[in-house]
C-alpha cells in the first residue's frame, strides 16, 4: 500500500463507557468501511489466554490495564481497522495521547440509566459486579468524564439505533480521516 493511501485509512478508535455500544456500532462501521473490526477486550483475552474476569480475579485491575497498554502499543494492526476500546482504556495516564496518535477517535456517550440497562448481567465487566451498579456507574462516569470529553468527537447514543449511531460515526470518520496526517 502506498504512503498516500495509508494516510487515508487510519484506524478509527471508538472509546466511551461500558454499554455505550462501542462493539455493536464498531462492527457496523467496520462493515461499511470494509475495515477489520477489533475489540480490545477480545484481543486481550486471546493474547492472555484468559477471560477478563479471570485476569481481574487472579491478578487485579492493574494487570488488566497493563495488557490494555500492550494492546495499544503493539498488539494490533495500525490501519484499516475499527478498534473498540474497553471503557477504561483511555482513562489510564498517557493512554489517550497514545490512542490519538494512531487515528481519529470517536467517543460514544449514554446516560447512567441506559448504561445500567445495557450492561446488566455481563460477565466481562467485573467493575460493575457490585451491590449497586448504578451508583458505581455514576461514580466511574464522573471520574472519567474529563478524559472522555477531550478524547474526540462525542456521539450520543441514548434512544438511537445501532444503525443510526453507526451512520453518524461513519460520517465523522470520513471527515476526520480526510485531514489525518
Ligand atoms: C472496563 C470496560 C470493559 C472491560 C473491562 C473494564 C472499564 O469493556 O474492558 O471490564 O474499565 O470501563 P467495555 O467498555 O467494552 O464494556
The order of strands across the largest sheet is 2-3-1-4-5
Work out the radius of gyration. 16 Å
Per DSSP, the total helix count is: 9
The CATH class is identified as Alpha Beta
Q: What's the CATH superfamily, by name?
A: P-loop containing nucleotide triphosphate hydrolases
Strand percent estimate = 5-15%
Intertermini distance: 16 Å
Shape: globular
Tell me the number of structural domains.
1
The number of strands is 5
**What is the CATH topology assignment?**
Rossmann fold
The proportion of residues forming helix, as a percent range, comes to 40-55%
The hetero compounds bound to this protein are: shikimate-3-phosphate
Mean pLDDT over all positions: 94
Tell me about the biggest sheet?
A: 5 strands, parallel
Which class of secondary structure composition applies to the elements?
alpha/beta
Topology pattern, helix = H, strand = E: HEHEHHHEHEHHEH
**Can you name the CATH architecture?**
3-Layer(aba) Sandwich
Explained architecture:
- This protein is of the alpha/beta class.
- It has a single domain, classed as P-loop containing nucleotide triphosphate hydrolases (Rossmann fold, 3-Layer(aba) Sandwich), CATH 3.40.50.300.
- The protein is built from nine helices and five strands, in the order αβαβαααβαβααβα.
- Helix 3 crosses helix 5 (61-74) and helix 7 (112-119) crosses helix 8.
- The protein starts with a helix and ends with a helix.
- The structure holds shikimate-3-phosphate (S3P).
- Shikimate-3-phosphate binds next to loops.
- Residues 18, 22, 41, 52, 86-88, 124-127 line the site of shikimate-3-phosphate (S3P).
Amino acid at each position: 500500500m502506498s504512503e498516500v493511501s495509508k494516510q487515508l485509512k487510519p484506524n478509527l478508535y471508538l472509546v466511551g463507557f461500558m454499554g455505550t455500544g462501542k462493539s455493536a456500532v464498531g462492527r457496523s462501521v467496520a462493515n461499511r468501511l470494509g475495515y477489520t473490526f477489533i475489540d480490545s477486550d477480545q484481543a486481550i483475552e486471546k493474547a492472555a489466554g484468559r477471560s477478563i474476569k479471570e485476569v481481574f480475579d487472579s491478578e487485579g485491575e492493574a494487570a488488566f490495564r497493563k495488557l490494555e497498554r500492550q494492546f495499544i502499543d503493539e498488539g494490533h494492526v495500525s490501519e484499516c481497522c475499527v478498534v473498540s476500546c474497553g471503557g477504561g482504556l483511555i482513562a489510564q495516564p498517557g493512554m489517550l495521547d497514545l490512542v490519538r496518535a494512531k487515528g481519529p477517535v470517536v467517543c460514544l456517550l449514554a446516560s447512567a440509566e441506559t448504561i445500567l440497562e445495557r450492561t446488566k448481567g455481563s460477565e466481562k465487566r467485573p467493575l460493575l459486579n457490585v451491590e449497586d451498579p448504578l451508583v458505581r456507574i455514576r461514580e466511574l462516569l464522573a471520574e472519567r468524564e474529563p478524559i472522555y470529553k477531550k478524547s474526540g468527537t462525542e456521539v450520543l447514543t441514548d434512544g438511537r439505533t445501532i444503525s443510526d449511531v453507526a451512520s453518524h460515526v461513519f460520517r465523522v470518520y470520513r471527515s476526520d480521516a480526510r485531514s489525518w496526517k
